[in-house]
Design brief:
single chain; alpha/beta; 8-stranded parallel β-barrel; globular; FMN; oxidoreductase; flavin adenine dinucleotide binding; tRNA dihydrouridine synthase activity
Length: about 400
């Protein structure tokens, strides 16, 4: 199914119209299409994709297929790229622009592999390059498409303010500011730095870090004056967070099963299921990994299941065992969407034909001699945040609220 984004969706209108814009953070492994569709049902105003390496997105059709999928309900949407050259960031943005409402440059990821490749928070050491990347991207793609940057605060508040003011002069659409430095993995966020930036910039500022419930979102907004609040850990544990619910509701778990189940069906298979529904997810389904399906349920049920049940559920290894557990314990199973709903959630066929010209035009000649590009496959490992949930049942007093640092 061919797809072009809704041309009438302007992300900046959302900031103008809402008192608080509620945002799901870019999260490696986790802010993929099915989860974005889920949180959209629970008052999430804006979604980000996981961080995508711009060089592989530009050079590899396979990378584009693996890293980015979308559908009719997946809007408004920002695609986040990691890049350290103009041609890769602008080229990737141009490729993706028909299928999203904005792009974001990651200048906040503190992970070692990203820093070694001079990506993420390492970009803050070369602000002139960041300014140039924003300016050139803004000049290539017309508004209302947004160009934004996600950063971490610097060691001195005044330097953070100056960096943000310079980005504003480059016509950046909005900024996301994580309230910790690149070396500060855990601990309190610097709310005063967030407030200083908000007071000195006219563009929307999104605050990120340390928020675990809706009340804390409003408290952070009121203190800092930021227009939006971005949440990572809290929304993984509770996708209904933006509704004010304190824990994941059973309705949310049911919706997760429905979204995942239907996302594994092609149109042909959907028609077969309509005639003879199995309400099951095959062990090697189309368009869904067990890791994504199971990990999200582990997070959602952390405060719902008693400890012994959590230990059993967290160790399950197959779709069938997970579905059987949920049916036995909660009396729920996946349901088939009605035809009209199924079409809205079906993956679009994204056609990038003839959209590589910007990347090719901007690419330095020396780049033609490169034989490979960077590849980071987060699906090859479980990740620190999931592993923490598996081991935390041995110590109920552990606080894992700050462990998710995947995208800074």
């Amino acid at each position: 199914m061919a797809f072009i984004k809704e041309s009438n969706v302007n992300i900046l209108d959302i900031f103008r119209e809402k008192d608080l814009v509620k945002i799901c953070a870019p999260m490696v492994r986790y802010s993929k299409l099915q989860f974005r569709n889920l949180v959209k049902l629970y008052n999430c105003d804006l979604n980000f994709t996981p961080m995508i390496l711009a060089d592989s997105f530009c050079q590899s059709e396979k990378a584009r297929t693996n890293e980015f999928t979308t559908n009719f309900v997946d809007t408004p949407l920002v695609i986040q790229f990691a890049a350290n050259t103009v041609h890769e960031f602008v080229g990737a943005a141009h490729l993706a622009s028909p299928y999203c409402n904005g792009v974001d440059l990651n200048c906040g990821c503190p992970q070692r592999w990203a820093r070694e490749q001079e990506l993420g928070c390492e970009m803050l050491k070369n602000p002139q390059l960041v300014y140039d990347m924003v300016r050139q991207c803004r000049n290539r793609i017309s508004k209302p498409f947004t160009v934004s940057v996600k950063i971490r605060i610097l060691n001195e508040d005044n330097k953070t303010v100056e960096l943000c003011k310079q980005l504003e002069k480059c016509d950046v659409s909005f900024l996301t500011l994580h309230g910790r430095t690149s070396t500060q993995i855990v601990g309190e966020v610097n709310r005063d730095a967030l407030k200083a930036v908000s007071e000195n910039c006219d563009i929307p500022i999104i605050a990120n870090g340390g928020v675990t419930n809706l009340n804390e979102c409003f408290e952070l907004k009121d203190y800092t004056g930021c227009k939006g609040i971005m949440v990572a850990n809290g929304i993984l544990t509770n996708p209904t967070l933006f509704t004010g619910s304190s824990i994941t509701t059973l309705d949310c778990v049911q919706n997760w099963l429905n979204i995942c189940y239907n996302s594994t069906l092609t149109q042909e298979n959907y028609e077969k299921e309509t005639n003879n529904p199995t309400n099951l997810i095959k062990e090697k389904p189309y368009n869904l990994s067990f890791q994504v399906f199971h990990h999200h349920l582990v997070f959602m049920l952390e405060k719902v299941l008693p400890r012994r049940k959590r230990q059993i559920f967290n160790s399950l290894k197959t779709f069938s065992s997970v579905l059987q557990f949920l049916e036995d314990y909660f009396t729920i199973r996946p349901h088939l969407f009605e035809p009209g709903v199924f079409l809205k959630y079906a993956n679009f066929n994204l056609d990038y034909t003839k959209r590589e010209s910007v990347y090719q035009d901007l690419k330095p000649i020396i780049e033609d001699f490169k034989e490979s590009f960077q590849v980071y496959n987060a699906d090859n490992r479980d990740g620190k945040y999931f592993c923490s949930k598996i081991t935390s049942d041995n110590n109920d007093s552990c606080d894992w609220s700050n462990l998710f640092i995947e995208n800074g």
